[in-house]
Design a protein that fits this description.
The strands form five sheets. The protein has a six-stranded mixed sheet with strand order 3-1-6-7-8-9, sandwiched between helices. Strands 2-5-4 form a three-stranded antiparallel sheet, with no helix packed on it. A three-stranded parallel sheet has the order 10-13-14. Helix 15 links the parallel strand 16 and strand 17. The protein is an alpha/beta fold. The protein binds cobalamin and iron/sulfur cluster.
Length: 500
C-alpha cells in the first residue's frame, strides 16, 4: 500500500421497511463514491447490505412500531468490515433509515475504536444535529466525492467544505460540500465491488425477466418545490453528465452485465431539454440496434414543461413505456403554495399524446397540503378524473409529508400545523396504516388527521378504478400481444431475418 493510500469501507445499511421484503436496489451513492476515491488512489470495500443478502430480514421496533430490516444483518456487517480499514462511511439517503444507521454507527464505534465514521446522504445533510448523535465523527452535507477524497488525503477536516462535526454544527445548514465541477470526472460506478450476481438474480425475478440497472444522468434540481428535500443536499444546483458519458455507462451495463432496462434516478431528468433530447435520440438508436430489447423509465422526477409533442415522440422511440408525471394537485392555488407552476392545458396534451403513442402514464397526487379545503380537494379530483378520461392510467396518491429541512416543514412548524413535532422518521413508512396514530403529519383549520385519511382513501379508490376504455383495453391486451407477436414474426420472415 502506498504511503498515503487509505482504506475506506463504504456501507449502505439494511433498509427499514414495514414489510418483510423489498425490491432490490443497488446503492448508486456507494458505487459512485467508491469509484471516485479509487480513481484518486485509495482502496475501497463496499458493503451494500441489500445486495449482499436481499432475502434476509430481521424484525425491530422503533418508537413502538414493528418494522423490518432488510438485507445483511448489522452483526454480519460488523464481521465483514476489514480490520485494516482507516475510515468507515455510511450512506443514509432517507430519514426513515436513521434508526438503522444510528444503531450501526454505535456498534461500529464500539468495535472499531479510533476509526473515523462518516455519514453522508440526504438524512445527515438535512438533519445534521440529530445525525451526529449517532456517534459519527463527521457528516458530509451534499455531494460526497470531493470532501471524502479530502478526508482520505489527510486534509484538516475543519477546512474541508461540507464536513460537519460537533465543532462547526452551528454553521452546518449553510456548509455545503464543494460540488464536482464536471460530473464526467466521476468514473462509472464500480459494480465489481458488490456481489452483482445477487442483484442480477433479484432484478430478473422481481421484474419477470427484465434486468434493470440504475443510472443517474444529472444531479440536483433548479426548482424549489416547498415539500422537496433537494435543497438540503444540492442547494438548488443542477449539473448533468455529457451524453457520451451516460452512453458509455449504458453500453457497459448492456455488454458486461446484460442489462435490458435502464432506470433513471435523476431528480429532474428533463431540466435541460436540449440535453435530454440528444440523449433520447441516442437511446432510440440503441433500441433500434437491439431490435426493441431495450427499455427505460424514470424512477424519480422530470420537468413537465419540457414535455412537448416532438420530445414525447423521442421518448416513445427511445424505449420508454411508462412516464411518471409529477402533477401533484389539480388546484392552481395549492400548486402555488407548493411553489410549482403547471400549465393544465399542457398536462392534458401530454396525457392525450402519451395515450396516442402507447406510453403508459402514471401521475403523482398529493392530498392534505396546507390550504387544501374540501372545495380545492374536489377541484383536484375533478382535474385528475378529466385526465383519466384522456388516458391517464394510474394515480399514486400520497399524504403530505413535511420532511424536516424543507420549506414546507418550516412553514408547518411556524404555523403550528405539525401533529407531532417529535414524530419518528419511520412513521412515514407506516403512514398509510389507519390504526397507527402517527399516520398523518399535519392538521389545519381545513382538515384534521381523519379528514386527510378520508381524502387519501377516497382519492386512491376514485382515481384508480378502471374507466370503461381501460377495462376494454385490458380485455383486449392478450389478443393484441398475440397479434403483435404474429405481425413481428411475419415481418422478420419477409425481411429474411433468421428465425429466433
Ligand atoms: C433510488 C432511490 C430509492 C431506492 C433506494 C436505493 C438505495 N439503496 O439507495 C428505494 C426505492 C429503496 C427508495 C425508497 C424510498 N425513498 Co428514495 N430515492 C431514491 C433516489 C431516486 C435516488 C437515490 C440515488 O441513488 N441517487 C444518486 C446518488 C449518487 O446521489 P445521492 O444518493 O444523493 O448520494 C450523494 C450524496 O447524498 C452523498 N452521499 C450519499 N451517501 C453517502 C455516504 C457517504 C459516506 C458520503 C461521504 C456521502 C454520501 O454523496 C453521494 C454522491 O455525491 C432519490 C432521489 C435522488 N435523485 O437522489 C430518492 C430519495 C433518496 N428517496 C426519498 C424517499 C422519501 C424515499 C421513501 C421514504 C419513499 C417512500 N415513501 O416510500 C422510500 C424509503 C424506503 C425505506 N423503506 O426506507 C427521498 C429522501 C427524503 C428523506 N430525507 O427522507 C429522496 C431524496 C427523494 C426526494 N427528493 O424526496 N429510494
Ligand atoms: S421539481 Fe422535483 S426534484 Fe425539483 S424541487 Fe420540485 S419536487 Fe424536488
Amino acid at each position: 500500500m502506498a504511503h498515503n493510500q487509505k482504506h475506506l469501507t463504504l456501507i449502505s445499511p439494511p433498509l427499514c421497511s414495514k414489510n418483510q421484503s423489498s425490491s432490490t436496489h443497488i446503492s448508486l451513492a456507494a458505487a459512485c463514491l467508491a469509484s471516485f476515491v479509487k480513481k484518486h488512489g485509495h482502496q475501497v470495500t463496499v458493503i451494500d447490505a441489500l445486495v449482499e443478502q436481499p432475502c434476509c430480514w430481521r424484525t425491530f421496533a422503533d418508537n413502538g412500531a414493528a418494522l423490518y430490516q432488510i438485507g445483511m444483518p448489522l452483526d454480519d456487517i460488523l464481521k465483514t468490515i476489514p480490520r485494516t480499514t482507516d475510515y468507515i462511511g455510511i450512506s443514509v439517503p432517507f430519514n426513515s433509515n436513521a434508526p438503522v444507521a444510528h444503531d450501526l454507527t454505535k456498534k461500529i464505534k464500539e468495535m472499531f475504536r479510533g476509526i473515523p465514521v462518516i455519514l453522508g446522504g440526504s438524512y445527515p445533510s438535512s438533519l445534521p444535529e440529530e445525525a451526529l448523535q449517532s456517534g459519527a465523527d463527521y457528516l458530509i452535507k451534499g455531494e460526497g466525492e470531493i470532501p471524502l477524497r479530502a478526508l482520505l488525503n489527510g486534509e484538516n477536516p475543519a477546512r474541508i467544505k461540507g464536513v460537519i462535526s460537533k465543532t462547526n454544527l452551528d454553521t452546518a445548514q449553510e456548509n455545503f460540500a464543494e460540488y464536482v465541477g464536471n460530473l464526467d470526472d466521476i468514473p462509472l460506478p464500480d459494480y465489481d465491488l458488490i456481489p452483482i450476481n445477487n442483484y442480477i438474480l433479484s432484478s430478473i425475478s422481481e421484474s419477470k425477466g427484465t434486468l434493470s440497472f440504475p443510472v443517474i444522468t444529472s444531479r440536483g434540481c433548479p426548482n424549489a418545490c416547498t415539500f422537496c428535500i433537494n435543497r438540503a443536499v444540492y442547494n438548488r444546483t443542477w449539473r448533468s453528465r455529457s451524453v457520451e458519458n451516460v452512453l458509455d455507462e449504458i453500453h457497459l451495463l448492456m455488454e458486461k452485465y446484460r442489462a435490458t432496462r435502464i432506470v433513471f434516478l435523476d431528480d429532474n431528468l428533463l431540466a435541460d431539454k436540449q440535453h435530454a433530447s440528444r440523449l433520447l435520440e441516442e437511446l432510440g438508436e440503441i433500441k433500434k440496434k437491439r431490435e426493441g430489447n431495450f427499455s427505460w423509465y424514470a424512477f424519480c422526477g422530470l420537468h413537465l414543461e419540457a414535455l412537448d409533442v416532438p420530445l414525447l415522440e423521442k421518448i416513445r422511440d427511445s424505449g420508454c413505456r411508462r412516464l411518471l408525471l409529477p402533477i401533484e394537485h389539480g388546484d392552481p392555488a395549492i400548486l402555488k403554495a407548493m411553489n410549482r407552476t403547471t400549465d393544465f392545458n399542457k398536462v392534458k396534451t401530454i396525457i392525450k399524446t402519451c395515450a396516442k403513442f402507447g406510453i403508459m402514464t402514471v401521475a403523482d397526487c398529493i392530498v392534505g397540503f396546507p390550504g387544501e379545503t374540501k372545495k380545492s380537494f374536489s377541484q383536484s379530483m375533478r382535474f385528475f378524473c378529466t385526465l383519466k378520461k384522456l388516458g391517464l392510467e394510474k394515480v399514486n396518491v400520497y399524504k403530505t409529508k413535511p420532511f424536516p429541512a424543507t420549506a414546507l416543514y418550516d412553514y408547518c412548524k411556524k404555523e403550528r400545523l405539525l401533529l407531532r413535532d417529535d414524530a419518528p422518521h419511520t412513521y412515514y413508512l407506516t403512514h398509510t396504516n389507519p390504526f397507527n396514530n402517527n399516520w398523518v403529519g399535519i392538521t389545519t383549520k381545513d382538515f384534521d388527521a381523519h379528514e386527510v385519511h378520508r381524502r387519501y382513501l377516497y382519492a386512491s379508490r376514485r382515481l384508480n378504478t378502471p374507466t370503461f376504455s381501460q377495462k376494454v383495453r385490458a380485455r383486449l391486451a392478450p389478443y393484441k400481444r398475440k397479434y403483435l407477436k404474429i405481425a413481428g414474426y411475419l415481418n422478420r420472415k419477409n425481411k429474411g431475418a433468421p428465425k429466433t
